[in-house]
Amino acid sequence: MTDATANQMPASGPAARSKHGSILVQAPSMRARNRAEARFKAYGLAAIVLALTMLAIMLTTILSDGLSAFRQASLTFPVTLDAATLDKSGNRDVAEMSKATTVTYGKVMAQSFVAHLVAQGISTEGVSEKELAAMLSKDAPAALRNDVLANPDLLGQTIEVTVLANGRIDGYLKGRVTMESAQKDSNISPEQLVLSDALRKAGILTSGFNWGFLKNPDASDQRPEAAGLGVAMIGSAYMMVLVLIITLPIGVAASVYLEEFAPKNKWTDLIEVNISNLAAVPSIVFGILGLAVFINFAGFPQSSSLVGAFVLSLMTLPTIIIATRASLKAVPPSIRDAALGVGASKMQTVAHHVLPLAAPGILTGTILGLARALGETAPLLLIGMVAFVDNYPSAPAEGVLDPATALPVQIYTWVQRSDPAFVERSNGAIIVLLLFLMVMNVTAILLRRRFERRW
Amino acid sequence: MSVFMTLVVLLIIAATAFVLCRQRALAMVAGDARKLHSLPGFHGWHGVVMALVPSILMLAVWLIAQPMVVERQVFAHMPTEMTADASAAQLVMADVRRLAQGLETAVETGRLGAEQATSPTLDPVTLRGVLAEVGVALGSEVTAPILNGAQEYRSLQSNFALWRTIVILAVAALGVAWAVRLTQPDFWARNRVEKVVLGLLILASTIAILTTFGIVYSMLTETIHFFQQYPIADFFFGLTWSPNFKGGSELGVLPLIWGTLYISLVAMVVAVPIGLFAAIYLSEYATPKVRAWVKPLIEVIAGIPTVVFGLFALVTVGPLLRDWFAEPMGLGNSGSSVMTAGIVIGIMNIPFISSLSDDIINAVPQAMRDGSLGLGATKSETVRQVVLPAALPGIVGAVLMAASRAIGETMIVTLGAGAAAKLSLNPFEAMTTMTVKIVGQLTGDTDFASPETLVAFALGMTLFVITLCLNVLALIIVRRYREQYE
């Protein structure tokens, strides 16, 4: 020990030494060695700082680009639902009313919007009627149409509606769209932005928490403001539950066999080598397997959460088996000997004593495996989950066969779209995904802290 | 009854069996469990095993066999020229299935009477309209043989489903009856239950082998299909990659392998020094307090999904490199490039290398450090000349594993590297990798008979073999040298 401390002291340099009046003068070679020592240490520190800086940059860009996705601009104004245009036959028959398309509703809505602006005395100078209508989201007429079809009595009334603003107007409120960028943008004009400032003052254009982002299904290229994570979150939830149901029993069973029962022979060696190899196989290979086996061979429906869960399960199993085996190994043999000594069978020993003691470790490993599966994208692309899905999958049992998408895949599809509003959405989706991952990881850490035993 | 409902009923039968067998065992010894060979619960579990194991095995066999039998039956009544060729037969069968599905939905929604759907005089043209209403779009023209086939398919399916339910439930009931009969005070229920449980455990542990087998088998068959259509030499030695779904594609893998290796090289150049120095600092220099904070923070990087790194590459790193390095140096103006993808993969791999190396460095015995320090070496000299050489095999193993991860990485390269297959040395140019092309060739509408789709399987196989070799090599190195100091 004294050697080590004596050796550390020169690191503080000759300058420090002379202050204490030491007569020891370092030889030039020793000084060079100490400089090398300091350099080496600095490299290590620099490496850590660099790695953590990268992490910090990444997280801050995600947060700064993504937090705005949780706010959304909307417009509130009264709409007069003209019965003559929306229900030509006049008998309030839903089947006939559905002949009025969203285009018609769009016109009705635009008229009411313009009329309201005139009534409020807001100048619309330099903005054509078409541009005025374009300030509303393309999704708004469809939403209004659904409301009317669900409740035909609304016809003929004037109702107060709150509709999404166009993605560019939304971007203007968030600072993504500016007067300069609007000049070059064919989808928005600076006059429209001036008008939206006036609308804000009048209280027509407001901005609030974006529940739609968490609830709505995906929307098409033209309407980023309506796109949400609803379907993706349901799909991910279905898959996580299925992965848990599939991997936990199989993973625990396999590890118990390998750790407690398996004889040492070629066959178990083969299994072990296989498991450690599978843990390192690129995830996309599992996607190819899923495509070939589950979809082409077994005929399961494409883009269903069931197939996604199968693929993710096969991918996570090795991780869970490795973690489970480690925690089984950590249970001291004396526990097993005691149980066997009082007459328990081997199976009873494992079921009554070893497994309960290893449970916290198994659970921690499983949660970490699930977290990995939740963030996995590549294999899901191959089994068709990248498809555009705007219908919610139905309730469980049958819903697992419906087309769905997953959170990471949704991020990927949004990134690929051209409208910059989708980049904001995908950053927002990343925040949601990271929140889920953080909750899972913190749970795992807490479990480990709370229940981990040192023998 | 649907398969799901059958399973539910089976579970109910199993629960009954548990109660029956347990009660009977207890009743036979007048409630004195000491006189039983096995605990009463084991008699109950024996009942469950007897109810479930044979019936579920039966169900599995039935579910695998049924489609084959039905298909054969349907084909038997079709003109032979329609089913002579295997791939044509598959298409016919797909049509039949879709039509049968459509009929089913039409009957369910009440747009078609149950008798109407099965009548031989059903008109294909009106049927088309009806199916379009229920949302089943038919691709090809509905011909009479296909329609008849679909009708037969439907009736066979429902017949089989009925028989399946009856047979399975009968098997389960028989099993329960037998289990009840076997229940005697001196019956070794525990041993039998434990044997079955052990069998299940073994079955679970073979899943890993089945998965590997499935991967190899599925990729190998499709790869062989591919090489029947495309010469193997052109694939492995071709210098151009230009798939064309109209035919006449050139599918040389070399540009892809080059892109993959180049990007992985950049990634390793970033990850290895940073990861290794971080590990050295953490294990040799850092105070316990610093270590307790920094180590988990670095591992946070490992928990971030790859698609997030992909977005980071596309939105932040790519434009940064383009504006600050590529354009001023005149090396190109592309945001997605080898550098972009490589650097980001490198960042992703830092925690992987650092935590593996950290474990390995910690495994080097303290006595070796003390010996070196005692001879007067400085700390860094000790690390460089004693600790690192001792830990080298393990570190090489870790680096190899990280390399295999970099080669198999998909999302970062899909978003950050670009899609152009090129053989170029310029690191600021967009290049592409095998994984990107697998995603590209297999997403969207795919035709599993064309070489342009099948090539993805050949690429997957190449990727699998490369990463497998790296992993096995790493495993061997780590295993061989790990025990050296234990």
TrEMBL record, chain B:
Subcellular location: Cell inner membrane; Cell membrane
Gene3D superfamilies in the cross-refs: MetI-like
Membrane topology, from the record: Multi-pass membrane protein
Location (main, coarse): membrane
A biological-process GO annotation: phosphate ion transport
A GO molecular function held by the record: phosphate transmembrane transporter activity
Keyword annotations from UniProtKB, A to Z: Cell inner membrane, Cell membrane, Membrane, Phosphate transport, Transmembrane, Transmembrane helix, Transport
Statement: the UniProt record of this protein carries the keyword Transmembrane: yes
Annotated InterPro entries: MetI-like, MetI-like_sf, Phosphate_PstC, PstC_N
Keyword Cell membrane attached: yes
Transmembrane segments: 43-65, 161-180, 200-220, 256-280, 300-321, 386-407, 454-478
One Gene Ontology cellular component: plasma membrane
Residues covered by the ABC transmembrane type-1 domain: 257-474
CDD domains associated with the record: TM_PBP2 (cd06261)
Biological function: Part of the binding-protein-dependent transport system for phosphate; probably responsible for the translocation of the substrate across the membrane.
Similarity comment: Belongs to the binding-protein-dependent transport system permease family. CysTW subfamily.
Official protein name in the record: Phosphate transport system permease protein
Gene: pstC
